[in-house]
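Renewal narrative, Specific Aim 1. Our central claim is that a sequence can be written position by position from structural information alone. The example that follows is taken directly from our test logs and has not been curated for this report. It begins with the structure tokens describing the chain, in the order in which they were read.
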């Protein structure tokens, strides 16, 4: 991922469209592109099968939040720290990590004007 020496976002928050989010992921977290594509395919299949846009809407919201976090190096670093703590810590550390991750996700949802998780 490209870094910002000033702590400023690496890129502006893109519009919540598949194309714009794909371009943002390619720029700031290219290793996540296979997951993006796989999850997009799954959401599109679910939407077609159910004749419902909800799976695609959830996909777009999820990746908009991901981009919001990853485009800000300090927040992305904190998020990774808590993910690591959740995986490697004891039960108390895992609960604390889950709470911290939840707060970061809630903050991202709020910043994007999305409903809470």
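The sequence written for that structure reads:
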């Amino acid at each position: 991922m490209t870094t910002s020496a000033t702590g400023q976002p690496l890129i502006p928050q893109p519009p919540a469209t598949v194309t714009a989010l794909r371009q943002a992921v390619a720029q700031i977290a290219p290793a996540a592109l296979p997951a993006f594509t796989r999850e997009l395919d799954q959401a599109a299949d679910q939407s077609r099968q159910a004749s419902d846009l909800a799976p695609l809407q959830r996909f777009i919201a999820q990746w908009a939040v991901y981009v919001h976090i990853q485009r800000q190096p300090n927040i992305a670093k904190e998020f990774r720290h808590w993910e690591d703590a959740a995986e490697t810590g004891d039960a108390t550390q895992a609960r604390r990590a889950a709470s911290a991750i939840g707060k970061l996700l809630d903050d991202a949802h709020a910043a994007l004007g999305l409903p809470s998780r």
